[in-house]
Specification:
mainly alpha; 78% helix
Amino acid sequence: MTETPSQHRLGIALVVAAAIAWSTAALFTRLLPYDSWTILFWRGLFGGSMIVAIMLMLQGSAGLRDLTRMSKSGWLVASLSTSAMVAFIPSLQLTSVSNVAIIIATGPFLAAGLAWIWLKEVPHRRTLLASAVALAGVIIIVGGARAGSDILGIALACFMALVIAAMTVMVRRLRSTPMVAAAAMSNFLGSVISIPFAQGIAAITGFDLLILAMFGCFQVALGLTLFFLGSRLLPSGQAALISTLETPLMPFWIWVAFAEVPVLRVFIGGALVMGAVIADIVGDIRTQRPSG
């Protein structure tokens, strides 16, 4: 499980880029007047197709073989990714966004715990401290949302957080598995599962189809591919910590696109999250510099 300093820095850059791509979800969703399942169907279709196109461009026929002859471990990762995507939508419908965001923010602790148990990968105290600060930042960001909740929605959010943590550790453990192919398959599986629940699949306009294509290609395909590639090169807890950058960046894109100025708590919480992640990355680079 050891990587060179250059590989480690590459892993950090890839996961940071994945978090930036994932953070645009709220922006694209805001532009689409459709039910969540319809968006998930088209997003998964475009996302999966984009990943396949990238595989063919970079690997040729070998990429297609990875997709058609995927191993059991690849199917397992794809199933975990699909489960997380599918659980995300009803969790938002059954409980508050604040509950979902806070539960997702526990991901670094869950990933570090699973990696400790499964990979004997002892989490660095610096990363655990940074994760705690990031969790506090997320709580501040969503602290003004309504307090009402539903047990089923919270249960789904907890399931999703655990699945994402397990997927992060599995990507780290099964580095010989073609994870890009698993990312493509997870999108297609998400589209198939959405069909019985989607109400507006055939009602999409041409402009909205363009937005959905951008949603699938950038937010899903690029984000998931970068995360899978970067997670192979980082400790599981650190990869999960960096991905929490998604939370403070979401209101930033809404601010840029719709001129909606975030409230003060978003600035304070976002500063805590970003400061925690940056401090962990800088500390990590300083620690590795002598060995490099």
